[in-house]
Amino acid sequence: MKYRVTTALTTMVLATAVIAGCGSNSNDDTASPPEPTIDATTPVVDPFVDDTADGQQKETVTRIIALGNKRKAPDNAIIAALVASRAEGFWRVHHSGSGGRNLFGWSQKWDNRPALDAGAVTDAIQTFYAGAESQGDAANGNPVDYAVAIQLSDHFGGRTYFEDREAYDDNMSYLGTEEKVRSAYAEALPYARAAFYELN
């Protein structure tokens, strides 16, 4: 009698385990894959929304990226270059008053060539990357912090960021303090990232 009860209980336990196992497999088979995580804090923008028919912005960004890749600069340094040049002049060479400014907002007094000269534009980009290299490896850092550090450092010799903007262009007062610079650069970051991933 005891043998029959034990056998019956064993059979019931095994049956329950098999049913539970089948239920578990069924759930695994029908489970939907997890939804991809979307960073809601990163706005989706058109990087060239304010470009004109001449396409100078896209041409400038392409050159910045190409020169960065040629120097084997980390992605973060290239994005920092795009941040600074976007914030300083919307990826354009500007003329204001009697002198122009290069892509990174520096007065034309630092270069005897016209601001729009192809060689002058290239050298302005190369100078920024040289400044990036002087800051050390920041591949995992914040592109805004990286760009601000590069611009405010005297990596070229004789250049002082705020003095240059105050002395040679009254219209640059919106970048008159480090806080204002950082704020303008932060606004440029989504456009810089979008341009980088579109053209790189």
Please tell me about this protein's structure.
This protein has helices at residues 2-30, 56-70, 75-89, 118-134, 143-152, 161-168, 178-199, and strands spanning 94-96, 99-101. The protein has a two-stranded antiparallel ribbon with strand order 1-2. The chain has 200 residues and is mainly alpha-helical. A hairpin with a 2-residue loop joins strand 1 and strand 2.
As an assembly, this protein is: single chain
Radius of gyration, Cα only, in angstroms?
A: 29 Å
Strand content: under 5%
Strand order of the largest sheet: 1-2
Main beta-sheet strand count, sense and barrel state: 2 strands, antiparallel
Topology at a glance:
Layout: H1 2-30, H2 56-70, H3 75-89, E1 94-96, E2 99-101, H4 118-134, H5 143-152, H6 161-168, H7 178-199
Antiparallel strand pairs: 1-2
Helix pairs in contact: 2-3, 2-4, 3-5, 3-7, 4-5, 5-7
In a nutshell, what does this entry contain?
The protein has 200 residues and is mainly α.
Key attributes of the depicted protein:
single chain; 200 residues; mainly alpha; two-stranded antiparallel ribbon; 2 strands; disordered N terminus
